[in-house]
Amino acid sequence: MIEGKLIVFSAPSGSGKTTIVRHLLSQKDLNLEFSISATSRQKRPDEVDGKDYYFLDIKEFKQKIKNEEFLEWEEVYRDNFYGTLKKEVERIWSKGRHVIFDIDVVGGLDIKHIYPDRTLAVFVKPPSIEELKIRLKKRKTESEDKINMRVAKASIELATAPQFDFIIENNDLETALKEAYKLVKDFLGTSVKNEKDC
C-alpha cells in the first residue's frame, strides 16, 4: 500500500486557497481526500456537521486537547478553536488516500514539523493586502470589524510564507490552479516512485 501523504494549503483569508483545494480535490488522478477540521465556533445555517467541520463545544474541544487527540490546534480568535483530529488523518490514510488541508498557517507549519518528509506545504499569496480586503468585502459574509481583523492577521501570516515549501502567488486564478496541480502531482509522483524503489 502507498504510504499516505499530507498536502497542506495555507494562506490568509481571501487568498483563494479554498478554490485551489476544491479544484485539486476534483482531480481524481491525485487520489486526495479533504481533511475536515474540528472547530469550537458556532455552526452557520448552511453548514453540515461532519462535512464542513466537526463542531465541538469549547469544553469538548479543550478535553480533546488534554487527551492529545489533535495533530495540531490553535485558538485562532478568542474562544474560537480550530484543529485537526489525529483520527481524521488516520481515517483518510486507511482508505489508501492522501490528505489535503485548507488550514491556518500555524496549523500548516505544525503538520510540516510533525511529518517533514510526508508533507508538501504550500502558501497561497494574494496579490496585495489591498486586493485581499477587496475580496473579503465582496464575499459580504462578515462585518467591517471582522474584515479589518482578518486583514491585520494577514500581514502577520504573510511573514510566515518563506517557511513553506512553495509559495503560489494568486494573481491569476487559472495560472495558480495549474501551478498547484503540478506541485501536488510532482510531490505525489516522486514519493510513490521512491517507495517502489525501496
Model description:
With 198 residues, this protein is of the alpha/beta class. The chain has one domain: 3-Layer(aba) Sandwich (Rossmann fold), CATH 3.40.50. The chain has seven helices and nine strands. It has a five-stranded parallel beta sheet with strand order 2-7-1-8-9, sandwiched between helices. Strand 5 and strand 6 form a beta hairpin. The longest helix has 25 residues. It is globular, with a radius of gyration of 17 Å. The protein starts with 5 loop residues before the first strand and ends with a helix. The C terminus is likely disordered.
Mean pLDDT equals 90
Amount of beta strand: 15-25%
Spans where pLDDT lies below 50 across 5 or more residues: 191-198
**Strand order, largest beta sheet:** 2-7-1-8-9
Compute the number of structural domains.
1
Query: What kind of sheet is the major sheet?
Result: 5 strands, parallel
Q: Helical segment tally?
A: 7
Give the topology, please.
Elements: E1 6-10, H1 17-25, E2 32-34, E3 38-39, E4 54-55, H2 58-66, E5 70-77, E6 80-85, H3 86-94, E7 98-103, H4 105-114, E8 119-125, H5 129-139, H6 144-158, E9 166-169, H7 173-197
In short:
With 198 residues, this protein is α/β, with parallel strands linked by helices. Helices cover 44% and strands 22% of the residues.
Features of the shown structure:
198 residues, alpha/beta, Rossmann fold, five-stranded parallel sheet, 44% helix, globular
